[in-house]
Amino acid sequence: MADIRQTAVRNNLLRLTSPTSFSAIAAHLKPVDLPRGFELSEPHEAAEYAYFPETGIASIVARSPQGQHAEIGIFGRDGMTPAAVVLDAGSDPFSIFMQVQGDGFRISTELLKSLLDRDADLKNLLGRYVQALSVQGAFTSLSNAVHHIDERLARWILMCHDRTDGDEISLTHEFLSIMLAVRRPSVTTALHVLEGRKLIYSERGMIIVRDRPALEQFAADAYGESEREYFRLLGPYN
Amino acid sequence: MADIRQTAVRNNLLRLTSPTSFSAIAAHLKPVDLPRGFELSEPHEAAEYAYFPETGIASIVARSPQGQHAEIGIFGRDGMTPAAVVLDAGSDPFSIFMQVQGDGFRISTELLKSLLDRDADLKNLLGRYVQALSVQGAFTSLSNAVHHIDERLARWILMCHDRTDGDEISLTHEFLSIMLAVRRPSVTTALHVLEGRKLIYSERGMIIVRDRPALEQFAADAYGESEREYFRLLGPYN
DNA sequence: ACCCCTTTGTCTGATACCGTACCGAGTGGG
DNA sequence: CCCACTCGGTACGGTATCAGACAAAGGGGT
């Protein structure tokens, strides 16, 4: 495979590795397309590959025995999967799949694991990411418990916006309803609220951020904490 | 300090360390009382000590900027704090405090950190615990999103019961309302439901588990997944 | 015994969200 | 160009939970 220059990489974790760590990893990274719906990891199965997205957004979803589900976190070029590699856990009980199409790199989990065992700095870096991710999950939990649907929707749009290049985010109400663990019609009405306040445009299969500062203000209490924690641990990712 | 024999220890993580790892840690462990309300870690502050409870229950709570709060996880003799030590993160944005009085061991975080740097097995062990904890958080998130208050209450009572010796759990409705992120009167009525079904007794400042199997059945979809994940990673803890 | 304070029980009205159903509008394939 | 299918909008009744207030009950201290 062709050489990968660290300065050309967009994934924040890969950018933050030391040059020596990077070249050790880079030799095994393979560029991959990440189409919408692509499964990065399946529940209770050891993933064959670890992924570092360059673009696009992936979603981590927990499912209950009776089939209820809720999103517990998202990541794009700020993250990687699976966290279980970093934590010596083998697998995890989540579905992780692409929600907004993109691309990135993959590496065999076995290989990554052995690199981590020999490279404490790298392991610490990914450890900090795991913390950022679980803090994100914690605030999702809080949000699910105490915030209204439109605020949670605003939070969610902001988190996606952080991880995309333009202002356009391509997804359906159906999809959003799964992410927020609400009914599909509730998404429709919540989107109308945001649209009515001129914070976004909403089209078929597409949400366009129109006034980001106002959107942040609207999300208010729901957005920000986990982003600050990421920044503290790993700096900016866009 | 007196010698601590590993076989006499009740904390599951300490029990699972290799004998050599254990003796390295044990030399620095100091027994401590953990009274109700004791702060194991404060938000955004580097904890001075790591704690390994032997008895009692601690609660991890996330707080939003506007002061809303919700519990994202609990642990007792199954766990330790802070996870941030394991993940090279320094601090985390949560309040962690004793909810049911108990006792345990503490060790300086600095010391634990340096032990972890030299002992990969120990680091992996605690890594697996961190995964178990964040899975617990994820299912809390799911539960907050989709389950009714009485089911969530049942789940919560079961999780506490797992971590205590008898069938008595000592806490007030006020406390429970914080944990479940609901109004206090909602707790009262939810407890009445469980009591009416003869699953628990409820007294002033005290909940007594009366029929655990039936309680599990009642909690149904809300309870079990994160416990299975803990078991897979770290075995039984009671 | 009394008082005070904590804890628990209950009420009333309001509302956010649900379950379900149905229909219109956009879109892509033959 | 039309059909089939996906996606989005809307409506209706029902209910879980909220917000806030107040009253009763338990328990400890002097």
Care to describe what's here?
The structure is a homodimer of 238-residue chains. The two termini of chain A are 27 Å apart. In chain A, strand 4 and strand 5 (69-75) form a beta hairpin. Chain A contains ten helices and ten strands. The mean pLDDT of chain A is 96. With 238 residues, the first copy, chain A, is an alpha+beta fold. Chain A has two domains: 6-143, Jelly Rolls; 147-223, Arc Repressor Mutant, subunit A, CATH 1.10.10.10. In chain A, the strands form three sheets. Chain A has a four-stranded antiparallel beta sheet. Chain A has helices at 12-16, 19-26, 83-86, 109-118, 120-146, 149-162, 173-180, 184-196, 212-219, 225-234; strands at 30-34, 39-41, 49-53, 57-63, 69-75, 94-100, 102-108, 168-169, 200-203, 206-209. In chain A, helix 4 (109-118) crosses helix 5, helix 6 (149-162) packs across helix 9 (212-219) and helix 7 (173-180) packs across helix 8. Helices cover 45% and strands 21% of the residues of chain A. Chains A and B meet through strand 4, strand 5, helix 3, helix 5 and helix 10 of A and strand 3, strand 4, helix 3, helix 5 and helix 10 of B. Chain A binds a DNA duplex (30 and 30 nucleotides) through residues 148-149, 172-174, 182-189, 191-192, 202, 204-205.
